Amino acid sequence: MSWFGKPKKSAEERLADNIRLVGPDIAATLPVDEKPWWTQMHLVRLNALLLVCCMSAATVGYDGAMMNALQINPNWKAYYNYPAKAKLGAINAMMPTGKIIGFLFVAPFSNRFGRKKSLVLAFTLTIIGAAIQAGSANLGLLIFSRFFLGFGCGVMSQPSPILLAELAYPTHRGKATALYHCFYFVGAIAAAWITFGTLKMTGDWSWRIPTLLQGGAPVFQLLFSYWLPESPRYLIAKGRDEEARALLVKYHAAGDENSELVVHEVAQIREAVRTETNSEKRPTVKKMLTSPANRRRLLISALVAIAAQWSGNTVVSYYLTLVLDGVGITNPTHQSLINGGLQIFNLLATVGCGAMMVDILGRRLLFQISAVGMTVSYVIWTILNARFDATGSAAYGFAVIPMLFIFYFHYDIALTPLLYSYPTELFPYEWRSWGVAFTLIVTNLVLIIGQVCNPIAMAKLGWKYYVLFCVLDAIFIIEVWLLFPETKGKTLEEVSRIFDRLENPGLIDVESSSKMDEDENEKEKVVCHEISK
Questions:
Q1: What is the per-residue DSSP string for 330-395?
Q2: What is the model's pTM?
């Protein structure tokens, strides 16, 4: 029997599971070990260190929830002389503006100096930014600290999911990379409840404490970054093959110098990063745009980034307070509790039904379920809002609240865990830094546009504005169906070959994709047959 009373799987069953996760080539080199990963110290050590990368998403999530809460804190508003909407807009816009500059800086920096050095720099900048923000004596210094923090978060956000994907154990990569952005809600929950706890305090420390604690996660990351390994793909790209091999032996093979897995990984990475087509020392926009495969990658990444901000989620967040006001829940404390509960719900949904399902359902199917669910729930939600606006009936108002949770559930299962992990998988090594930076830039640009447009459109159009998001969500269904490839069961290098086979800029050939799946199934049968013999 296994740890939890389930019957132990046979060697053939474990092999079949591994093939589903990483494909037949890597699966054939994996040790057929029945012990769970948490009983193997080399994997426990590796996954613990990868939490350093995941905490980057928590830092970003903390900031968003904290700033929303501070702007209703009477002590914060009084200290900064009740800033007008234009000044509040400047405060909020500085964070994504700084991020964009950080993304442009870190893409070439991380390719030249490595993922680890980029993160150490980012942790240091973010700690300094949090300290400046907590000690801001005037509005000008606060706005500067927001830009400085944004730059640090930008430098942090780009290499974190990349290093996570390039370091993770092969069978863990799908879940590990999907879990990365789920930590956004860990930070958001912490900020929501910390600001709730300090709301009743008098004096400046009611808002200085939450702003100072924004540097807490980066301090933790900086301390443990000493033990954080560098990316083996970066090391091999720089000709440091033996260092990469030693790293993989330590963390993937428990010190086994003769591991077939390490031999295969090193050979596969070396081939991928040193082929003639991947030998460009300085990736440029021109080189990226002249490649049909890279144009497809950029298009998919942009569509994911836009959907993450323009599926209606930002309007839902904005409208939540109005909905609660309309049904008689006007107490700020009660509204804060509901908002905090929603953040906890988001975390449970994105981890349990999103990140943990990427290797079972696959990325493409999760996107499809998410797009359909968001469309249906948003249409119903819009109809209920229209009826509430027309009749003022509390029944329609109360009915809106569960639809918000249903919408967020479908958003959480794909657009939270896959926002950065999916583009990370799509791009080959030499373009990965730029590809993830591009995704982050588009995400923050459309976020800024939404911050400017949404309040204006809502004030002028009311519930009619939500029809736009119903249409956008419906279009996203079509985009996923036609353009998004499945990356489940493939290494980063194998995912790259999906795009290399595209010889024209047309839509993904479904027949070709099916043929590729059939080939993988044939490989699986051969490997299983060899093992059974």
A1: --HHHHHHHHHHHHHHHHHHHHHTTGGGTTTT-HHHHHHHHHHHHHHHHHHHHHHHHHHHHH--HH
A2: 0.78
